[in-house]
Amino acid sequence: MRKFLAFDIGGTHIKHGIVNEEGIILSRGLADTEAHLGGPAIIEKVIELGKLLLESHTVDGVAISTAGVVDSKSGKILAASDTIPNYAGVEIKKLMSRALELPVSVRNDVDCAGLGELWLGEHQSENFIVLTLGTGIGGAIVINGKMYSGHTFSAGEWGFMQIEGEPFEKNASVTGLIRFAQEYKENRNWTGKEIFELYDRGDIEIKKAVAQFYRYLAIGISNLIYIFNPQKVIIGGGITTRGERFLLEVKDEIKKHLKPSFYENTEIVLARLSNQAGLIGAVYHFLHDGTEVF
C-alpha cells in the first residue's frame, strides 16, 4: 500500500505525518512554524523535517496543505497574510520536489480540510461548504464532488465578506469573540475556552459578548446558504471542540436569519476530522490532482 509524507503548514504549527492511500495516519508530529522567519525559511524547515522523516520511512510522494492562496497546479504561493512574511511567490512544489526527489502536491489548507471531509468525513455529501473558525475565517466549496477553487484559486475567502459594513471574520472569528468579551468584561487575554466556561456559568456580560459573536456568525452562514444552496454546511476550527452545544447554539441563531425552506433543507454539522483534516485532504489532493513530475 502506498504511503505519503504529509505536511500541514499553519501560522503557528507545522503538522506532519505519514499517511497511507486510504487516509489512515500512521504516524504524526508537530513543529513550531516560526512564522516570523518568513516563508522561505519555513520551507527550508519543512525540507529538513522531510529529510529526517525519510531516514525512517519510505514514501511515494509528499502532500502539502498550507495557509495562503495557492496555485494548486504549480504549487506556488500567490498571496499570504502578514502572519507569514515573504510567503507570496515561494514555489513550494519546485523547492520540495528538488530537495526530496519525490513528487509533490500543494493546496490551500482550508481546501484540504474540505477534501478530507469529502473523502472520510461522516457527512457524506458531494455539495457542501466548509467554514473554519480561528483567528480568521477560512472557507472551501465542494460542488458535485469537486473542489471549486475559483478563477485565481481564491474562492472561499469569505472571511473578507462584508457583514454590516465590516469583514465577516472581524466579528465572527475567535478574534471577534475575544474582542467582544474584552468590551463587556475586564480587558485581559481571554481564550475562547475561558469565555465559554463563563458563558456556561451564566455570566451576564459574557453572555452578551457570545450573543454578538453568534449573531454575526449566523448572518454570514445564512448569506452563504442563500448563495450556494448547499446540502451541508460543515463548521471546523478549534472552537468547535465545544461540540454539540456549540452546534445547537449556532443553529438556533441561524434559524432567526434564514427562511424556513432554506433552514429545513440544509444540514449544519461539525467537521469530523478536526485538526487532522489538512493532512488527510492533502493526500486526497495528491491522489486525485497532484502531478508526479519533479
What is the distance, rounded to the nearest whole angstrom, between the alpha carbons of the first and last residues? Answer: 22 Å
Query: What Rg, in angstroms, do the CA atoms define?
Result: 19 Å
The strands making up the biggest β-sheet line up spatially as 3-2-1-4-7
Number of helices: 10
The number of E-state strands comes to 14
- Shape assignment: globular
Low-pLDDT stretches = none
User: What is the typical, i.e. mean, pLDDT?
Assistant: 93
Tell me the strand percentage band: 15-25%
Question: How would you characterize the largest beta sheet?
Answer: 5 strands, mixed
N-to-C order of helices and strands: EEEHEEEHEHEEEEEHHHHEHHEH
Structural class, from helix and strand content?
Answer: alpha/beta
Share of helix, binned: 40-55%
Could you explain the architecture of this structure?
This protein has 294 residues and is an alpha/beta fold. It contains 10 helices and 14 strands. The strands form 4 sheets. The chain has a 5-stranded mixed beta sheet, sandwiched between helices. A hairpin with a 2-residue loop joins strand 9 and strand 10. The longest helix has 25 residues. The radius of gyration is 19 Å and the shape is globular. The two termini are 22 Å apart. The model has no long low-confidence stretch (mean pLDDT 93).
